[in-house]
């Protein structure tokens, strides 16, 4: 693997408990579960696991005590890890997966981080970033964390020479994009719902109108964002670069088993291609192939290189489709923080 190290920060890590339902979720009824699994999670952790599975040099930064089950699980996977103690257990998130791949997530809020813990995390992250090509800030922020903390972290990392990718949503995403060009990441990875929130429209309106989609992405570039990787679930993804390049990729048809972590695998695929020096269209192709491979696996499992097939992904210049809304299918890139 060429290219250098990736450092990920998961400010709100979790143990991800996936529960397989025998059929569609029925409220108020008893469901006899199939095979269940528990895996270390949080969006940055998922990115790190996917990168490590492909042989990349990656290091994960998490707020967690040394004996926390999350830390034990990550060490068991052989993942390089930097931790900052919090004195509280890592949260547990629950995913209910139906046979057609539809996933319902129940996420606990997570451990509150005080100012001292946040300062320690910033110090650990910037120290690790000095040896990295990419720093990835992923997921929701813990309760009580200032909404603009990701903007502060981008500024802190900027002087290390590492490029910064951010994948978050709602208030932290809006605060980041409003913080000014000095806090603008090199890459953001929204899904359609998250981009619509920023653009002030519904997801359906965004996807039905190429002009609205183009304007929403252009707005991110106007704020200083270098690259936008927009994941569109089963409809693939769009890559837009600040120099005006736009490509769309169509995802292969797969039997979806779980969408948990699929968007994180998409980001990992993109970074893997970038580390290998691939041009923009190939970075997008690898992202969609990796996310689709993850969606075909149970729980929040990450794909091995042999399970990723970039040749099955079609890439074309420009935005996807006409003006019609895409078919609503569960697929890669729809996971939430």
List keywords for this structure.
337 residues; 14 strands; alpha/beta; disordered C terminus; 10 helices; 23% strand; 33% helix; ten-stranded mixed β-sheet
User: Total helix count?
Assistant: 10
Instruction: Give the total of beta strands.
Output: 14
Order of helices and strands: EEEHEHEEEHEHEHEHHHEEEHHE
Helix content: 25-40%
Strand content is 15-25%
Q: Main β-sheet, in a few words?
A: 10 strands, mixed
Task: Name the average pLDDT.
Answer: 92
End-to-end distance: 28 Å
Q: Sum up the overall morphology in one term.
A: globular
* Gyration radius, rounded: 19 Å
Question: What can be said about this structure in brief?
Answer:
By secondary structure, the protein is of the alpha/beta class.
Could you explain how this protein is built, in words?
Strand 4 (57-63), helix 2 and strand 5 (80-84) form a beta-alpha-beta unit. Helix 1 (43-53) packs across helix 9 (262-275) and helix 6 (192-199) crosses helix 8. This protein is α/β, with parallel strands linked by helices. 50% of the residues are buried. The protein starts with a strand and ends in a 20-residue tail after the last strand. Helix content is 33%, strand content 23%. The strands form two sheets. The chain has a ten-stranded mixed beta sheet with strand order 5-4-1-8-9-10-11-12-13-14, with helices on both faces. The protein has helices spanning 43-53, 69-76, 115-129, 149-158, 170-178, 192-199, 203-208, 210-222, 262-275, 280-295, and strands at residues 5-10, 14-20, 36-41, 57-63, 80-84, 91-97, 103-107, 132-138, 163-167, 187-188, 227-231, 237-241, 246-250, 314-317.
């Amino acid at each position: 693997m060429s290219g250098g190290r990736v450092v990920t920060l998961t400010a709100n890590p979790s143990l991800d408990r996936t529960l397989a339902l025998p059929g569609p979720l029925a409220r108020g009824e008893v469901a006899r579960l199939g095979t269940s699994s528990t895996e270390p999670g949080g969006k940055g952790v998922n990115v790190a696991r996917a990168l490590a599975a492909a042989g990349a040099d990656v290091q994960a930064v998490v707020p967690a005590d040394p004996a926390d089950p999350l830390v034990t699980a990550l060490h068991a996977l052989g993942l390089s890890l930097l931790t900052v103690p919090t004195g509280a257990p890592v949260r547990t998130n629950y995913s209910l997966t139906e046979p057609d791949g539809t996933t319902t997530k129940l996420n606990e809020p997570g451990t509150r981080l005080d100012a001292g813990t946040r300062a320690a995390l910033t110090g650990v992250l910037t120290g690790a970033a000095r040896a990295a090509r990419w720093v990835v800030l992923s997921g929701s922020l813990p309760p009580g964390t200032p909404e603009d903390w990701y903007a502060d972290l981008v500024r802190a990392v900027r002087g290390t020479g590492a490029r910064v990718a951010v994948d978050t949503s709602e208030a932290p995403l809006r605060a980041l994009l409003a913080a000014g060009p000095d806090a603008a990441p090199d890459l953001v990875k929204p899904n359609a719902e998250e981009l619509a929130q920023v653009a002030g429209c519904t997801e359906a309106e965004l996807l039905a109108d190429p002009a609205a989609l183009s304007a929403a992405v252009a707005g991110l570039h106007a704020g200083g964002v270098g690259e936008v990787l927009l994941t569109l679930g089963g409809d693939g993804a769009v890559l837009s670069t600040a120099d005006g390049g736009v490509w769309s990729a169509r995802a292969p048809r797969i039997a979806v088993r779980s969408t948990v972590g699929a968007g994180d695998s998409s980001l990992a695929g993109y970074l893997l291609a970038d580390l290998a020096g691939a041009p923009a269209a190939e970075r997008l192709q690898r992202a969609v192939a990796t996310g689709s491979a993850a969606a075909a696996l149970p729980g929040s499992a990450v794909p091995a290189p042999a399970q990723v097939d970039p040749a099955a992904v079609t890439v074309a210049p420009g935005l996807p489709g006409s003006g019609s809304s895409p078919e609503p299918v569960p697929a890669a890139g729809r996971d939430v923080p």
